[in-house]
Amino acid sequence: MVIAIDGPAASGKGTLAKRLAAHYGLPHLDTGLLYRAVALTLLDAGFPLDDERAAARAAEALIADRLADPRLRERAMGEAASRISAVPAVRAALLAWQQRFAGNAVGAVLDGRDIGTVVCPDARVKLFITAAPEERARRRHRELADRGETATFDVILADIKARDARDASRATAPLKAAADAVVLDTTELDADEAFEAARAVVERAILH
Ligand code: DC
């Protein structure tokens, strides 16, 4: 069974994806990490983020080891990932990587921006997780503070809005809900309630 989970930055899709994967015994891939790793590879090698050829080469050469680097979780890397993710050649290189992961025998849970629309259009379950930008900024603010990163709420909110706009407006595989995705707004839900709502969607899909 493949479960595709999409949504904007800090919507809670990652937490949800991890919990669903653990619950159903499926491997999980946070596809945002792939884009973050390409951005980090580029910056570490001294290339600017707008060097599309270098970004494409970094995506083609991506190795799994890179996905464990703690720097990938930093705020600046989310922004950098969003920028390089608009490059079609980067997306093409990462598409194969993600489809291989999803194609294993047991299935998988993948979360990102274009899983239900492009990476796994035939996924058994498609969820689109969203929440009001202010609530997402509050969650991200708390998460960054827990990790010792200092950024004000206003800066994070501005980041989130800019990232939403960029991710949703790019020409290749923009952020959007698949026509057959179930949209789950978690603004008023805590993590347990969001999980129960998502699990109910999966259970319904299994019964069909
Ligand atoms: O989910 P995240 O915040 O780690 O993602 C970082 C950026 O990577 C996001 O702003 C856009 C890009 N991304 C993408 O274009 N497609 C995906 N499937 C996942 C992430």
Report on the architecture of this protein.
It is a single chain. The protein has 208 residues and is an alpha/beta fold. The chain has one domain (2-207): Rossmann fold (3-Layer(aba) Sandwich), CATH 3.40.50.300. The chain contains 9 helices and 5 strands. It has helices at residues 13-24, 32-44, 52-60, 75-84, 88-102, 115-119, 133-146, 153-169, 191-207; strands at 2-6, 28-30, 108-112, 125-130, 182-185. Helix 1 packs across helix 9 (191-207), helix 2 (32-44) crosses helix 4 and helix 3 (52-60) packs parallel to helix 5. The mean pLDDT is 95. 2'-deoxycytidine-5'-monophosphate binds at residues 9, 31-32, 35-36, 78, 81-82, 85, 112-114, 163, 167.
Percent in helix = 40-55%
Ligand types: 2'-deoxycytidine-5'-monophosphate
CATH topology description: Rossmann fold
- The CATH homologous superfamily is called P-loop containing nucleotide triphosphate hydrolases
The parts where pLDDT drops under 50 for at least 5 residues are none
Mean pLDDT level: 95
Q: What's the alpha carbon Rg, rounded to whole Å?
A: 16 Å
Backbone shape? globular
CATH class: Alpha Beta
Q: Estimate nothing, just give the exact number of structural domains.
A: 1
GO biological process, one term: pyrimidine nucleotide metabolic process
GO molecular function: ATP binding; dCMP kinase activity
InterPro entries: Cytidylate_kin (IPR003136), Cytidylate_kinase_dom (IPR011994), P-loop_NTPase (IPR027417)
Enzyme class: transferase
